[in-house]
Write a structure and sequence with these properties.
This protein is an alpha+beta fold. The chain contains one helix and twelve strands; from the N terminus they run E-E-E-E-E-E-E-E-E-E-E-E-H. It has one helix at 139-167, and strands at residues 2-4, 12-21, 24-26, 32-34, 40-41, 50-56, 67-76, 87-96, 100-104, 113-117, 124-132, 136-138. The strands form four sheets. Strands 2-11-6-9 form a four-stranded antiparallel beta sheet, with no helix packed on it. A hairpin with a 5-residue loop joins strand 3 and strand 4 (32-34). The longest helix is centred in the last third of the chain and has 29 residues, at 139-167. The mean pLDDT is 85.
Length: 168
Amino acid sequence: MRVVELNNSNNWESIYSTSVAAVQVPMQNGTYLSSPIPEIVVPLLLETFILAISVTTNVPENSSWKFAGYCNQKISTGLVIGGGQDATTVKNQPLFLEQINLILFNKISTNYSISVKVPKWFTSAQLIIWQYTGTDSDSIEDLVNQIKNIDLPRIEQKIDDISNYGAG
């Protein structure tokens, strides 16, 4: 079981913030056509597997928009095909507008990167990403560390004591 202290604001660090806008292409009839916002690639390698992400946009009045896109976790596999990028998308997490989205990724690599894909109808988006910096422990991991760091040295010391006792 994973044990974290998410409710302490001191355990969070803002690591990335950006505002993006769709490109407006003028049409012959005087209107504009928006090209979709491309996938937002966060230029960081992350080692913390708990993130919080906020996405905001200009929502039309009387709109019921709630969906803000996806956060994509990408890991490096070390495999290259045709000289292309070897990052593989492992997990897509849905994001919701105007709220802090808690993202819990599995610890399957030493580091990873992320990208955010907003819906094609967004004409602008503001993105803020925080990483969890507090203690992130697993009860199984804690037990292994206890055996390795406390129990095993104690047992070794007792064996040494027995060996020395019989030597006299």
